[in-house]
Amino acid sequence: MAGRKSSSKGAAFELLVAKAVLKQFPGFTEEDCHRTPKSGGHPYESSSDLRLSPEFRKVFPYAVECKHHKDFKIGQMWPKPSALVLSWLLQTEKAAQEEGGTPILVMRGNFTPIYVALPASPSIFGYKQHITLEIDDGRLQHSFWAVLPFEDWISSLPNLQ
Question: Residue 79 and residue 2: Cα distance in Å, rounded?
Answer without folding.
Answer: 31
